[in-house]
Amino acid sequence: MKLLIRPAPEVAIKSKPVRRQQMRHLRQNIRKLLARLDPEIRVEGSWDRVDVEVPDGRGLSGPALELLLRIPGISTIQEIGAFPFVSLEDVAEKAVEAFADRLAGKTFAVRARRHGEHSFRSIDLERTVGAALMQASGASGVDLKSPQVEVRIEVQDDQFHIAHRKHRGLGGYPLGSVENVLTLISGGYDSSVAAYLMMRRGLRNHFLFFNLGGTAHEVGVRQVVHYLWDRYGASHSAKFISVPFEGVVAE
């Protein structure tokens, strides 16, 4: 399975040098976390996208997608079907297999792009695929301005890609692309949410805990911190600093 990852708008609007730096952080974070699932997962990209290729037949697609949905800095994740290009009719057949069940009673539009030399135009591809989908899907019609479903196809030389489901990412900035911070954590709701929001803004958190309630309290706070780090910050190491404060409370 192939996944097309787009950065969050906060990253996309930056100047070229800043965007290049943040995209590098994003690729590194994705590569580091996906390597835990399988070191053969490929991560590549450019200034406005990250391409992830997950080996088929290993049960990695679901876990990889779930992990990517928790990485700060990602706007959307699009599942991509990749096929060798044979003919326009073959592209249409693959599009029917992917979208026919999702178009019943809905309007749709086919958006095609090409890269390379081909004997057909993009509009020829759009018409061929659109006609096949109208015949096979029971769609209510074609709406080029505001369709309920968009069928996106991209032809690159002798390959073509069909965009499947799109998932919304966490947004924000890539973790580590901004400064490190020391977060005062109590284990309660407010400090935990604040830590999450800072991670989402690209801040690498280290955690400071003033222990007011003994060992049991500290164990509970460590569990909260580990949950936050494991879900949203595991691309970077984090420190947990515990300050014994029971004596102060006793006074």
From TrEMBL:
- Amino-acid biosynthesis as a keyword of this entry, yes or no, is no
What's a single GO CC term here?
cytosol
THUMP domain: from which residue to which, for each copy? 62-166
Tell me the SMART domains matching this sequence. Answer: THUMP
GO molecular function annotations of the record: ATP binding; CCA tRNA nucleotidyltransferase activity; sulfurtransferase activity; tRNA binding
**Which keywords accompany this UniProt record?**
ATP-binding, Cytoplasm, Nucleotide-binding, RNA-binding, Thiamine biosynthesis, Transferase, tRNA-binding
One BP term from GO: thiamine biosynthetic process
What is the protein name given in its UniProt record?
Answer: tRNA 4-thiouridine(8) synthase ThiI
Its source organism is Marinobacter adhaerens
